[in-house]
């Protein structure tokens, strides 16, 4: 955890960003209570600043403010996860179709080279069983395609969705076999975009997100059954 500079004008904003990072990275687990004193000591800021930052996260979907109990990292239900995946699938499919069209029109001439480089790094991470490295490359792959869509508003919406989804996206890629499936889906997306086929790119992208939800469900169901 980094220490936040006391002289910065946007102190509460920096603290919010650090708390958000800790939630997204898994340093703060789903369902965990946010301890204002512990966070303020670790970051070198006042409890009031931490409290302000936590309150500003109330509408982010990352935390729950519970009266008389405090703030907790949001624990996403399976129904919420399905809804998030549906929304993400629709946006990602649109973005990949747009990227294929823009490539065909000569606007994104370097995109395939960038995607192929990313895929090669993914294969290397897979060969070494490095799922953490693969997860970071996976984020980069999707970010490149959202940027290539030429639709900044879609990227903002997508980024907000995936911020809520990191806790179970990471879990879905926690097995090496799941990484192999994910790579194959990324290869299919890249091939469809390289051909300039918007419909094929849209289908490959949507199928990838749908499969991602399936990978998450495979790991989530045993826990759900044990909790029942």
Question: Pairing-aware structural class of the strands and helices?
Answer: mainly alpha
Oligomer: single chain
Give me the strand/helix succession.
HHHEEHHHHHH
Low-confidence stretches: 222-228
The overall average pLDDT, rounded, is 86
Please tell me how large the radius of gyration is: 19 Å
Gross morphology is: elongated
Task: Please provide the count of β strands.
Answer: 2
What summary fits the major beta sheet? 2 strands, antiparallel
Termini, distance in Å?
A: 35 Å
Task: Please describe what this structure looks like.
The chain has a two-stranded antiparallel ribbon with strand order 1-2. α1 (about 10-25) packs across α3, α4 (about 80-105) crosses α7 (about 150-170) and α4 runs parallel beside α8 (about 175-195). It is mostly helical. Helices cover about 70% and strands about 5% of the residues. It starts with 10 loop residues before the first helix and ends with a helix. It has 9 helices and 2 strands; from the N terminus they run αααββαααααα.
